[in-house]
Each structure stands twice: as C-alpha cells, then as structure tokens.
Design brief:
- The chain is an alpha+beta fold.
- The protein contains 10 helices and 10 strands.
- The mean pLDDT is 87.
Amino acid sequence: MEQALLDVGLSPNEAKIYRCLVENGKSAVSAISKVTGVHRRNVYDSLERLVEKGLLFQVLSRRENLFEAVHPDKLVELIKEKEARLEAALPALRESFHRTPHTEDVFIYKGVEGFKNYLRDVLRVGEDMYLLGAKGFWFDARLTSFTRSFLRDAKKRNITFHSIFDHEVKTDMGSVLRTVPKPHRFLPEEYSTRLIVNVFGDRVVTFTGLAPGDLGSSITLFVTVNEEIANGYRTWFKFFWERCQR
C-alpha cells in the first residue's frame, strides 16, 4: 500500500503517516509518531505538507490537536491535477524540443519503461518499422495493455510493420502472428539469434537477451539516430526480406 502512495508523489514519511491516519482514524502527533516510528519533529513537517496537499485536516481539541485523513479518492484528484498541469505545459515543451536539432545521436534505454519509451519514439516518428529477428516480445505480460494501445495508435498513424520473425515464432507463437499487423516473414531455423534490429525513420535500435514472447528482466536498447545509417540498414533489410520464408 505504501508503495502506491510513494508512486503518486508522497514522501516515505508522508506515506506512513497518511496510511496510519486512514487505518486508525484521527490521531494526535504523539500517537502518529508511535505507530509510524517517525520522529515527532518530522511528523510535524510531514503533517504540514499533507495538509497543503489536501490529504488530511486538523481537528482542534482542548488537549492535543488531532489530525484526520481525507477520503483516499483525493489521491486520484491529485493525479488528475498533475496531469492537467502537464497537459498545459506540453505544447511549450514540444515546441522547444522540436526547435533543438536531433539529427545525430546515440543513447541507451533500459528496462521495461525504457522499452515503452522506444515504442513511444516509433509513434512520434510515425514512419514504417523494419524488424529483423522479431520475437513477439511486445506480448510480454508486463506490456499487455501498453501493447494494445501502441498497436491502436500505430494503426491511426498508418505505420506499417515489416517483420522478419525468428523461426520459433512461426512454430510456437501463433497468437502473436494473428495480432501483429502484416506483412511478415520468417528466418530459417538455423539463423535464429537473441538479437533484434529495428529500423524506423532515422533510427536504428538494436537489443539482445530476448526470447520469443519474453522481454527479459534487464533489457538494454541501443539507439542510433543517423539517417544515412538507417537507410543502410533498410537496404540490408530488403535483401533479407526477399530471401526469407513467407
């Protein structure tokens, strides 16, 4: 539970204190400190911030003032407010980003979230994808909802996927082939590897350590942004495409 509170932007002490008040009802500072293990001085600081965020309120008492949690639905409101502020700032951020030249670059994405960033790049660039050594890794269970959204948005942008899959996808992963947009072809069995190369726009993305349908636990994606290199890889892809199995 506390991890969810941390994910919406509460500090560790704020998360402990808010959870304490939700579970125990209105409480005094001394009781909050005892239950959470947070020093009284730090409790006061966190209570002040939680009041400012609208997550709790103070109850005046003749003895020691009490604090009570606001309904947890307020957390959803906080997220929506942050999203609204971000939406308002995005136009200026996009304008600044596009004013900055990005003609050549080399960088790395890591992990599942890095992989999602790579797919977001595909949508932003908006050009066809050329996948060599494809493995159906988009259907990793951790990406299910994201993949559905990605494929839907790619269709709206008229992005075509040219996929040359490893042989194992053809023999063992029929559900992937029914979902991934055509056209696609297959490498001969003896040429399956753990490597994937993806070319789109002026980008070449290479990554390894994958198995069919499994993104792995520590994926690293190497991204090269260079139009000449991307065009060269697309030319090689056409060579493979003409010689691969349907």
